[in-house]
Amino acid sequence: MDRTGKILIVVTNVDQYESVGFRTGLWLGELTHFLDAIEEHGFQGEIASPSGGWVPLDPQGLMIPEMGHNSRLGGDVTDRYRDKKFMDRLNRTLPLAEVSVADYDAIYLAGGHGTMWDFRSPEFGRLLAGFYEAGKIVSSVCHGPVGFLEARLSDGRWLVQDKDLTAFSWAEEKADNRDDVVPFNLEEELKARGARYTKALVPFGKHVVEDGLLITGENPASARGVGEAVARALREAAPQPRESVDAE
Questions:
Q1: What is the rounded CA–CA span in Å between residue 21 and residue 2?
Q2: CB atoms within 10 A of CB 148
Q3: Which of 22, 27, 218, 245 is a good FRET partner for 15, with 20 to 30 A between their CA atoms?
Q4: Is 6-237 a domain of CATH 1.20.120.80?
Q5: Measuring CA to CA, how many Å separate 98 from each of 6, 35, 94, 116?
Q6: Pairing of the two strands 94-95 and 44-49
Q7: Cα–chain-centroid distance for residue 112?
Q8: For the chain, which residues make up each domain, given as ranges?
Q9: Is the separation of the CB atoms in 109 and 151 below 8 Å?
Q10: What is the largest CA-CA distance in the chain?
Q11: pLDDT in tens, 68-90
Q12: CA 175 – CA 209 distance, rounded (Å)
């Protein structure tokens, strides 16, 4: 398999909850911490979204020092947030309809509650199945696994069926006071698809699960760990240069 050195990062376009006035969107640290990890290993991230174009940011996730740093939810995103060139990339994301599986080595689904409204679609599911069946890594964090819920493989099985994985837990949803405004229980929906779901012993603890091509993280604090696991898996799978043999 030819390597491109590129990883597709998918983020949400949804900026508010349907039933209440809360603002939502991408949890920025789930993008930046993953991106930091893969770039340190020489990989490039390209950002896409279901509709393309502008990406909203969840205000709760903008944990720069002036706004209150909350390390349990993923850490400080100050440097990236202040980088205009980087932030401008969130104004012109690639539409998923224009994505070609062949252009990337892996796909990563960042979270934020907005994903609960625009990641759950048959079209996105088919794209994820295409990555998986092409032998490419499919990864996610927090609410990103919403995208897996409509992903079926060519044999009709759900992509997550009989797979070990994790995602934002219902206990964390309750602790975040969002259990009464989200459209469904992600933990239970994944289990209903046949996934072997696990979570950290303590809510908001780092938890990364690897099962072959599937790599998932439970919450914002796990985003960097997912990036490191993806980069490691890609490097281990890369073809090694053949040793030269001296002519006799």
A1: 46
A2: 30
A3: 218
A4: no
A5: 15, 21, 7, 22
A6: parallel
A7: 10
A8: 6-237
A9: no
A10: 77
A11: 344 455 556 768 888 999 999 99
A12: 22
Q: Which residues pair with 23 in a beta bridge?
A: 16
- E strand or H helix that includes residue 226: helix 223-237
Residues in the chain: 248
Query: Which residues are marked as active site?
Result: 142-143, 172
Measured between alpha carbons, how far is 24 from 27 in angstroms, rounded to an integer? 8
User: Which pTM value belongs to this model?
Assistant: 0.93
- 44 backbone dihedrals φ, ψ, rounded to 5°: -110, 140
d(CA 141, CA 223): 6
Closest to 12 measured CA to CA, from 109, 130, 155, 137: 109
**pLDDT single digits (tens) 94-123:** 999 999 999 999 999 999 999 999 999 999
Amino acid at 186: L
CA 42 from chain center: how many Å?
A: 19
